[in-house]
Amino acid sequence: MSWGTELWDQFDSLDKHTQWGIDFLERYAKFVKERIEIEQNYAKQLRNLVKKYCPKRSSKDEEPRFTSCIAFFNILNELNDYAGQREVVAEEMAHRVYGELMRYAHELKTERKMHLQEGRKAQQYLEMCWKQMDNSKKKFERECREAEKAQQSYERLDNDTNATKADVEKAKQQLNLRTHMADENKNEYAAQLQNFNGEQHKHFYVVIPQIYKQLQEMDERRTVKLSECYRGFADSERKVIPIISKCLEGMILAAKSVDERRDSQMVVDSFKSGFEPPGDFPFEDYSQHIYRTISDGTISASKQESGKVDAKTTVGKAKGKLWLFGKKPKPQSPPLTPASLLTSSTSNGSQFLTFSIEPVHYCMNEIKTGKPRIPSFRSLKRGWSGKMGPALEDFSHLPPEQRRKKLQQRIDELNRELQKESDQKDALNKMKDVYEKNPQMGDPGSLQPKLAETMNNMDRLRMEIHKNEAWLSEVEGKAGGRGDRRHSSDINHLVTQGRESPEGSYTDDANQEVRGPSQQHSHHSEFDDEFEDDDPLPAIGHCKAIYPFDGHNEGTLAMKEGEVLYIIEEDKGDGWTRARRQNGEEGYVPTSYIDVTLEKNSKGAVTYI
């Protein structure tokens, strides 16, 4: 089946069909372009959505810790990767489908224009041949009519007796001329007719079939190209399906990773203060202050009974507990007797009589007009009292448990930084050795500033680690001894009597504040446990300084070259040794700067910071 033989007379139809094919190709290209824009907009919107809900990590404290949050952020990451695959689909379609379609449409337009021009030229040439043949035919027909007229004129004159001989000869010559011209036009017409028939045969059997064949091949290539683009359109989507499936599997794994038990434990770890719950409130029997006059023997009995009740109330129920915002309020003063109602103490210890006629009214006024007690913050002066203030370097503004975790995290970070600096120092030393062995590779002296900087960084990090470890040991030591201190403090609270003032003084009179010996002891016991000086550590050896050390950092000990020091704590692997001078000054010195000699009887001794 060929267009040249089957559609030899449908040039205009083929012109319209090929134009429709190119228009359809461009229409499909427009469809692909809009699909690309949809994919790009979809990917952009997904990325904006991910960006909107991703956390802005300005600090490490805001990093997600709960498994549900981590799973959600993993889903956001997978969704971001999914958006990237949509962009890949758009890029693949733009390059493989849309770009190819636009390039091929341009080629088709050029090829179609060339073939149609060749077909029009062939038609124009055939029309020209037909016109020449038609002109020669008309001329031959005209000459034949003129020859017939000349023959009729000659015959009429030849039969006319009145015609002269000259007229007859003239008519005969005219006949011969017309006949000759008719014969010439006849030959020309025959030649033109023969030429036209040949060109027409060539046109319809050679030229036009060849042009139509080229148009047919062009249209078939267009169809094949559309088929390839259809396949490429689907392949662009199919190629990313495995990666998209992995993204979806990642979302499913993120959903499975949610652990409610772990999240609950994280809540405990995040907000646990390390304090114990408050104890029970003691029973405060205000009825003991009432002056009962029942009988002569009742007063003494009431004294004994009230004394028993007070002992049970204060000692039996008042177990010392550490409150969240201070210590438990002090027990009330012992029951008022008639003597206590009639006498009061002044600030200098003298007594004066006060007559009370309505003891019940007096006690009720004490209940109604008594000011609320202010909880003591002394025992938490390094804890909750600084919570609203700026963060301190030793995290003393945090509760004990949170402070311990923060210090441990900082120590781990400093150890990692120290390890990096150590690795860098080893690399620089190796490079320096290579330079010393092969001077043409570099100058060993050029690495000395970097080595010195690295050593200084290591010294600084070790000092930071020691400082934080000291704080950590302080926190852990306090956590271990908190129960004993709290018990002794509660005993002091039980011994003290009277009302607690905001400054911590106790008195029987609301307008007077006198601090007794037991109260002062209770006040100082809260600080003595924190600031007690440890006994000097025993020397476990001695050392000699090989190099001088400035000791500018806090906690370090400066030394001169050749100076002999006592060793009171060995190097624990961090490059620092604790030493002491003869005058008692202690500090840390770099282990690599000294020559250490340990005593034989001190091997394996346990040292403390």
Automatic annotation (TrEMBL):
The keyword Cytoplasm applies. Residues 397-474 form the REM-1 domain. It is a peripheral membrane protein. Residues 130-174, 404-438 form a coiled coil. Residues 538-599 form the SH3 domain. The keyword DNA damage does not apply. Residues 1-263 form the F-BAR domain. GO terms for biological process: autophagy; endocytosis; signal transduction. It comes from the Eukaryota. It is found in: Cell membrane; Cytoplasm, Cell cortex; Cytoplasm, Cytoskeleton; Cytoplasmic vesicle. InterPro entries: AH/BAR_dom_sf (IPR027267), F_BAR_dom (IPR031160), FCH_dom (IPR001060), FNBP1L_F-BAR (IPR035494), FNBP1L_SH3 (IPR035493), HR1_CIP4_FNBP1L (IPR057871), HR1_rho-bd (IPR011072), HR1_TOCA (IPR057870). Residues 476-490 have a biased composition (Basic and acidic residues). GO terms for cellular component: cell cortex; cytoplasmic vesicle; cytoskeleton; plasma membrane. Residues 476-532 are annotated as: Disordered. Keywords: Autophagy, Cell membrane, Coiled coil, Cytoplasm, Cytoplasmic vesicle, Cytoskeleton, Endocytosis, Lipid-binding, Membrane, Phosphoprotein, SH3 domain. GO terms for molecular function: lipid binding. Belongs to the FNBP1 family. This is Formin-binding protein 1-like. The lineage of its organism: Eukaryota, Metazoa, Chordata, Craniata, Vertebrata.
